[in-house]
From TrEMBL:
Signal peptide: none annotated. Belongs to the neurochondrin family. GO terms for biological process: neuron projection development; regulation of neuronal synaptic plasticity. InterPro entries: Neurochondrin. One of its GO terms (cellular component) is dendrite. It comes from Hemiprocne comata. This is Neurochondrin. The gene is Ncdn. The lineage of its organism: Eukaryota, Metazoa, Chordata, Craniata, Vertebrata. It comes from the Eukaryota.
Amino acid sequence: PAMASGPGDGHSTLKRCLGVLREARNDSEQFAALLLVTKAVRAGELDAKTRRQIFDAIGFTFPNRLLTSRQPPAGCPPDTFQALGFTLLACFCTDPELASHSQILNKIPTFNDVLVSPCNPESTSMVDDVYQCLSAVLATTRGPRELVAKGTVSALCQAYMSGSYGSDRALTLLVGLLAIAEAKCWQRNAPHLLAVLSKLSNDFLKAEDMTKFELCEVLPHFIPLSPPLMQDSQGCECLHRLYKGLANILGSKLSQTQRDPALKLAACLVQACGSEWIPAGSAGSKFLALLVNLACVEVRLTLEEPDPLEVEGKKEVVTACYVLIEMGIQECLREEKPLLEEMQKIQLMRIMEEAFGAVIFYLRQVKQEELQDPFIFASVRILGAWMAEETSSLKQEICELLPFLVHYAKKLFQEGSPAVSLPQPKLVSTEGSALPQDALRFLLPGFCHLTAEDKPRDILISAGAPALLWEYFLHQWEVLTSVPKSLTPLTSTEMSLQTACGIFLNLVVTTPDLIRQDKTFSSLMDMLLKSLPLLLPQKDHLVLAANMATLGLMMARILAGSAALQGTQSAQEFFRAAILFLSQAHTAQADPGSGAVALAVSPAYSGAWPEVGELWFLGMQALAACLPLFPWLPQAVLQTHWLENLSELLTHVTPASVDFELVAAFQGVLVELARASRPCRDVILSHQGTEWANLYGMAALEQCLSEQ
């Protein structure tokens, strides 16, 4: 029977066909009814309910048989049955529930086969149906994982590379898959994806029309954060083509709609490869300066407007500019093989300062209800990067913004503690990722500089920064200690803990009264007493241990009257650990040439000495100051045998190898020990103390030892 023309009639015909399908006695009856059904499906005139009725009438068995039938009906093209099967599956897939059904998911390899097979002109509708099925699967929760696992990425890459029918849809699907499962896609299909990137970057370089700007939108999806593209010669070639293509674009006069995608692509490359994709030499340095310049102009133009971000997509562009500016900051500070010349650096710093003026202007107007916006996070993060490096500029403006920054960091931290250590999302998806983020991590280095100065320090204290820092410190310590030991090289968690120690040290040195009065610091002291003994034995954490030991010693000096420090077990264990840290820093080392024995930094400390050295000297001073305050402490020093070891060390090495500062540090501790404790004095004397004190010019120690 022919399909009736009126929609009402069509519906009744369809109903009749469905009835036939249900009651068909043999394949040919079923097939005839099916042809009519698929005709209606292809005409696209069915609503969801009717489609579901078709599925209920047919189920998966019949399409499954169609897909495996090898014998077409007489006079029909060879893949007639398969085409019908795919049409039905495409129809079923419009129902999300069916799209994630195992019967659809197990067809993924069959779909892939269609994509990689040569397509003859008669079977284009079959290819369309397959793409429809794959798009529907991609939109389900389980779908992307299944597609990656069952080889769809390489099939899509091949379909795109072949340029056959529907290859543009292959690219769209690839973009969708990469947006959801980038890392997995690259793990399994790096060569195929590189081939696509290679073709795209080639097209990008050669295009002279609007295609160039369209490719700017597509390319970021194909630039992986890992594996690094620089590792591979094909990847390097792609990057070079992208650099040249971008240099062409950004060097021309552009409209807003053309410039924005180019800036986003550049930012994506920076996120993935830093500045390594920009070649050294004058062309590269001009390009880099131009990039940062354009980014700064964009930030100013946007953020100085009254309602800066009303325009659709503006946040993404400005976020991309932030990435470029952050690279600008790093390049201006880079001393080894710098890409920029001195003059360029000076100019860029000035231009960046203006951009940061605009960022501050924008942040001062943020409303309470906007605080969860990821764009504000991006703005605070980039300002943190500037404050970390460039503290002298915009000082007044930054001071005025500090209460907001503390409030913002506190709000995010308290609302999002569980997710505090989440990594940064990739640029492409900045819109709408409302994850709680760790803003404080990016502000700490700037706060560390600022707490060394009176005015900003007072503002930070009155804004409640110490209590927030303590909560954050405790949280990050829990994060660090909850990770299995083998997994913790220097993480952002550990960096944050070190920087927080630096801030606390600044406060200890400059505001001892605050340390005495604010309960925060007695809690911090208790925590340090318990934590240092756990941390010190672990080899990988020397810098953090140095920070915590020195901070604890400096605070103990101020909080000497507190109950926790009166010879309690935790206090004794802390001081034992701190003494261990101080006592193991130096060793005797024979000079292979002369045979002379010199004092040197111990091998375990030497790699970290640039970061640890200053803390060691500070720790020695603090220990010396603690000795007269804690009657039980000299005895604890005796138990570690440090005095014997130090005497032996100083007797063995050439005095000329021990510099003045080191002599002063040792003498400071030795004098206090000799004064505070007769047993300590006796140990020093019985180990030729008088002789080596004289030899090293330790006059105060000589004096002390000679007194009865």
